[in-house]
Amino acid sequence: MELVSIVGVTPQANEAAAAASGRTRAIGAIMIGIGVFTGLVFAMGVSSAAHSGLTFNPVNLSNAPWHVSDLTVATRWVNAVIALLMVALGLEVIIRSPRRAVMVRFGVVAVLFLFALLFWVVRTPGPSPVPVINFTAVLIGSSEVAMVLIFGALSGVMCERSGVVNIAIEGQFIGGAFIGTMLASTTHSFIFAALGGAVIGGLLGLLLAFLSLRYLSDQIIVGVVLVTMIGSFSSYLNLQVFTPFPQFNTGTLAPNLAIPLISKIPIIGPVFFDQSGFFYFMLILVGAVSFALFKTRYGLHVRAVGEHPRAAATVGINVVRVRYINVVLGGAIAGVGGVAFMASQGQFQPGYTSGLGYIALAAMIFGRWRPSGAVVASVLFGLSVYLSQNLQTYNVPVSTYILNMFPYIITIAVVSGLIGRVRAPAADGIPYHRE
User: What is the rounded CA–CA span in Å between residue 373 and residue 363?
Assistant: First the structure.
């Protein structure tokens, strides 16, 4: 038995472990490099007299939180602390070579880098016309982006846990946003808008499932075609319907539903307890999906179908039916995410989801196909997307196009496995042939 155990540790396994360890150390080195750059440029590269302002009172909120005084910090020393934290995280990755949460550590370093850049830009004296960072406003804006990403990531989890790759999340976002703005503008009800978004997203999911499961089409190609089709069709309808009839695209924003008393708590109150109904629904949905996938018989069937469909079929599980149900439900969730995006951004415009569906897929992979992990990843990506889109307002001496590339660079790094390998469900994307 001992000999078998020894022989079982194959050279290939040792090589794979060594490669994973080497990749982890490389990521740690990159994190250290980012930290050193931050320390040299954003900390030591500024005057010791430079200072940055922080304010914690959001603007344009009717239910303003209890007032918190502004804070002025020394730019050099704040960024030095941030740089040391980055280096410490990188050293910890190199020394310990952790198997889990390497991507989370890298995401934290990426967000810290953006905050260090922001502190550096708003310093006085400095290039920015705005000498302060509205920290609460940054968190609120980031939470709106993260909310949409969580809807998309949950859609991906539902589909891929059952073995179907849903590249069409971007198209389901667009379809949900389009139908949502029409219904919200005509009925003045975001409940009807959400239902409409769920229907259009579910129908797109049904089409994806039909082509992938009935005709065994390549799921990646089908998803890309659906995104292209919906994107083009929505642009056509925008020109033919919304342009001549603007009353169908009024850009109504969903009202905030403040929870009494706790919404007044500074910083966290406006971020978590003074949001739209979509935000609260997203929180409920995270818990519901997690419970359904990991605490119910239905979830056991879903995971069995996504890992070993033939074994699942031998015990009486209808593989195709389970996949149909999950892909349709996943599409409906993404459709509601599109409505949530519209409800926080305003009027529908062609292409204004800006690839969030693909970033949501990266967040799902980042989170290892688990709802809780997808939430953490979506928060990190949400901060990254929001900061990269708003740094230009501070006259950052970097091209706007370069800043807008930042979240997509992280997305490519995650999807390609540069920030650690992750294992998808074994049957993910593999056509199932009925016997």
Answer: 8
Average pLDDT over residues 366-395: 87
State how far the Cα of 8 lies from the Cα of 329, in Å rounded to an integer. 42
Cα–Cα distance between 20 and 12 in angstroms, integer? 12
Tell the residue number behind the tokens 């302002």, with chain if given.
Answer: 53
9-39 pLDDT, tens per residue?
A: 566 556 556 666 777 888 899 999 999 999 9
CA distances, 178 to each of 16, 202, 227, 343, 345 (Å): 46, 14, 14, 11, 12
Q: Collapsing DSSP states into helix, strand and coil, what is residue 420?
A: coil
Counting Cα atoms < 13 Å in the Cβ hemisphere of 121 gives 20
DSSP-derived letter for residue 266 is T
Strands 132-134 and 51-55: parallel
Chain segment 325-379, per-residue pLDDT in tens? 999 999 999 999 999 999 999 899 998 888 899 999 989 988 889 999 899 889 9
pLDDT tens, 37-50? 999 999 999 988 99
Contacts of 250 (CB under 8 A, 6+ apart): 181, 184, 185, 347
Structure token pair of residue 78: 């704040």
Count of C-beta atoms within a 10 Å radius of residue 224: 15
Cα gap 106→92, rounded to integer Å: 12
Question: Among all chains, which residue has been given the structure tokens 């968190």?
Answer: 139
**8 A C-beta contact, residue 417 and residue 399:** no
Q: Where are the domains of the chain?
A: 17-126, 137-435
Answer yes or no: CATH 3.30.70 is held by domain 137-435.
no
d(CA 217, CA 10): 36
Where do the DSSP E strands lie in 13-149? Answer: 51-55, 71-74, 132-134
